[in-house]
Amino acid sequence: MKFFIDTANLDQIKEANELGILDGVTTNPSLMAKEGITGRINIQNHYRSICAIVDGDVSAEVISTDFDGIVEEGKILADLASNIVVKVPMIKDGIKALNWFKDHGIRTNCTLIFSTGQAILAAKAGATYMSPFIGRIDDTNWDGMTLIKEISEVYTLQGFDTQILAASIRSARHIVEAAKAGAHVVTCPLSAILGLLYHPLTDLGLEKFLQDHRKANPED
Ligand code: G3P
């Protein structure tokens, strides 16, 4: 399973990358705005900075919602670096654009997926990745992981090669559940990735090992 970090914050991307377990980055317009990155040129430069930190895929989202606009924006984004993946919303013109990008060798991430029907359409349109939003489904009192499981079953049955990128991950537990449900990729905030590290028995065990070592080796 691949690990992406879901942020536009360069320090957090560097911190995750230094762990040696990072396979890529996802961003969206809200995450770019959160970092105060505004204006076309600044946004493009920011994507270049992210791509200079990580070797893996970096999702860069289009703002346009019409076919011509999505294609024009996507071409510009894809030209910024070889590891850019163009992120396209699950809308009618987005589906047409996904097909166009596939035919022109540009990799894509179809975003804002909330149903298996949308996941099937994204796969048919040739998306490289498609992103079901787990946390936002949970927010509405449904179960985001049930969606991942159903998409995973359908993709396996039908032999679709679009990768399931579990997004809107909010916790370390979500990462484990997404892995069990068959997600190929999880994209998470740094806090969820670091959350995987912690277990109280690990802390207690390490403290005891170090205590015993100090007792047996007072000179250390
Ligand atoms: O990858 C999508 C993600 O950024 C959305 O997360 O927490 O805003 O639902 P959230």
TrEMBL record:
GO terms for molecular function: aldehyde-lyase activity. Keywords: Cytoplasm, Schiff base. This is Fructose-6-phosphate aldolase. GO terms for biological process: carbohydrate metabolic process; ketone catabolic process. SUPFAM superfamilies: Aldolase. It is found in: Cytoplasm. One of its GO terms (cellular component) is cytoplasm. The keyword Hydrolase does not apply. Its main location: cytoplasm. PANTHER family: FRUCTOSE-6-PHOSPHATE ALDOLASE 1-RELATED (PTHR10683:SF40), TRANSALDOLASE (PTHR10683). The gene is fsa.
